[in-house]
Batch of 2 targets.
Target 1
Amino acid sequence: MQLSIIIPTCGRPRILQQTLDCIERQTVKNLEVIIVSDGPDEKTAEMLTNLSWPFAFQYFAIPKSHQGVCRNRAVEKARSPLVLIIGDDIFLAPDACERHVKAHERAEEKGIMVLGFTTWDPSIQLTPVMKWMEQSGAQFGYGKIKNFRKNFLPTSIQHWFTYTSNLSLPAKLLYQNKFREDVSLYGWEDIEWGKRLAKKGVPLFYEPDAKAYHHHSYTDEEVWRRSRLLGQSAVIMEKTDPSLTLLPRGWKRIAYHLMALFPTYRGKHSHAFLEGMRGAKINS
């Protein structure tokens, strides 16, 4: 097998089925898919039992935890030299896996990570706040690395872009550098993991032609709830690893407070993020 695709999931069998249908259309056929449910999930198990795909797949559930633990358990069972980490709502373009595999084959240095490009699925209606999320970098910051297309990112910034919606690396590398299992709040675990790999000299290559589409709609309130959770998580993650600089400080902290006064999307995000920070500090 050329590639093992790792998919954490949690109670979303319908969207997972569509994700698997996209994998069925891949130009690379020698694949396996490892699906790990974050907690018991009878409906997903039933769906996988009743349907079939032309690729090998493994499915199992773990006690309720978080996506990082799912990925760790999945790589322990991977049978391919390369793994591709995606989400259960990520629709891969037909040649995405082929692009990942070829990027690894072309690399003079073995043991690299390859970042693909992820954008919103065009089949869903984009709300103004979703457009803002993509343009501002609140969801993905690809605009910040457009000058590194088909190239390696600078080591100093690469950990900010270890997006596990569309990221491949050698299975052995993930097995030896697993996600932290003591952090259960949403957000930042990818960045913490990416920073550890950067410190070990593992480079990140950006392959924009390995495309994927995020099939997930957000309401305004869901976005601000996400922002509050990110603020809360940032406080906890920095206490766990002081070398991470996730919280706004100095002039940036002042800018956040000023922006929070305005009813713009950026202002609402700043207000919610600061609320999350305050909540985490009060409860700590």
Note: The radius of gyration is 19 Å.
Target 2
Amino acid sequence: MRYCAATVFTPVFATLLFTSFSNMPLRASAWEATRVLSAAGMTGEDMGFAVEMYFDQKTEKALRDLRKVLAEAGVKPVLDEIGDRPHISLAVFSQVDVDVLLEEMEGFARDTKPLPITLSAIGAFASTEAVLFLNPAITQDLMDVHWDFHQTLGDLKMHPHAYYQPDRWVPHSTIAQNVQEGMVGSAFDVLRKSFKPISGKLVEMGLVRFRPVESIGVYSLGGK
């Protein structure tokens, strides 16, 4: 049984929406989960794999422009330095059979229509990685795609990290990672002042190896 969009968020995560906290230091979370969800498919490990969904060109540019705004404000552009493409991760693995997964992803992408999406809020993970991100408005279509993909992974006996699995997934698109100590609050304020909701579509899915980020395969949704 698929889950409904209203149940996506878990109380493990403190999402800070449009909040100025310029004087608030970022502390290490009590939950290991924040390391798993930190950013760009990263798990706190040196190596791994992530299945990602990519935006249309206009939306991707808007996200890159927000990263540029933060860089101009003095935030180190870690995501650009490691080759990260703006995305929403569906699953992250420590190890995976790449050939088998790519074959399944090609068919899954062909059978999945492009998804309308609106990035509507700013958030942060309370982790040592100092991550800022944008939340998409949760739609049933988005949650269904995530659910269906994880059913496919289950059929393949593939086991992604737990916090990307149904009922634990927190969909997000990372804007900044490893923000310098003492700059988290000011970076959040810069983002808050620059951000307006961004509407577009998810049009591709791909598999990457990290880090640095290396694209292994990319497939258009709907087979286009």
Note: Residues 119 and 198 are 5 Å apart (CA to CA).
